[in-house]
Amino acid sequence: MLQSIVITGFMASGKSTAAAKIAADSGWRLICLDRQIEESCGLSIAQIFAEKGEAEFRQIESRLLQDALAVNSPPKVIDAGGGIVLLEQNRRLLEQACVIFLDTGISDILHRLKNGAQIRPLLAGLDGEEVRQLWQARRQVYVKTADFVVKDMAELNELFDRIIQRG
Ligand code: S3P
């Protein structure tokens, strides 16, 4: 049976666009964990961080990842938040999935962050150099937890075709 695909990567690296494209091409269900977290709490991500704190956010995120990867459920495309690789319990769950790290360069990420409207509580108050340091530290964990690393959408599409053909 095909494994679910989880797209990982730093904030603003284009995961949502990538996951939506793969889901549209495959017909698999698309799950965006951040949206599910917001729906389950009735709060925005920024409000959850402010009112409940990061630790509680991580627990909710982990529970929803576990649900999404439930044994015997049909394969899905999961758009995970950038911090999904931080908890050991999540890294273990991810072993059941096909994890694709979208390795977008820091200049593209900084550009998107500057032009995007989304509020990302973890980046509040950080300057470009501090974001780069966080990206660099996280990047190693993304690489370690990934089955595949792709640089852009073209590489992702090509990889997905191979995964589907392999069954
Ligand atoms: C986070 C990434 C965010 C969101 C939360 C924490 C992170 O998702 O889950 O703000 O720790 O990297 P995106 O990667 O979709 O921005």
What can you see in these coordinates?
The chain has a single domain (5-159), classed as Rossmann fold (3-Layer(aba) Sandwich), CATH 3.40.50.300. It contains eight helices and five strands. The longest helix is centred in the C-terminal third of the chain and has 18 residues, at 128-145. 55% of the residues lie in helices and 12% in strands. The radius of gyration is 15 Å and the shape is globular. By secondary structure, the chain is of the alpha/beta class. A five-stranded parallel β-sheet has the order 2-3-1-4-5, with helices on both faces. The chain binds shikimate-3-phosphate.
What oligomerization state is this entry in? single chain
Please identify the structural class as seen in this structure: alpha/beta
The CATH architecture comes to 3-Layer(aba) Sandwich
CATH topology: Rossmann fold
Distance between the termini: 7 Å
Low-confidence stretches: none
- How many helices does DSSP assign? 8
User: Helicity range of the residues?
Assistant: 55-70%
What fraction strand?
5-15%
For the structure shown, list the relevant keywords.
alpha/beta, Rossmann fold, five-stranded parallel β-sheet
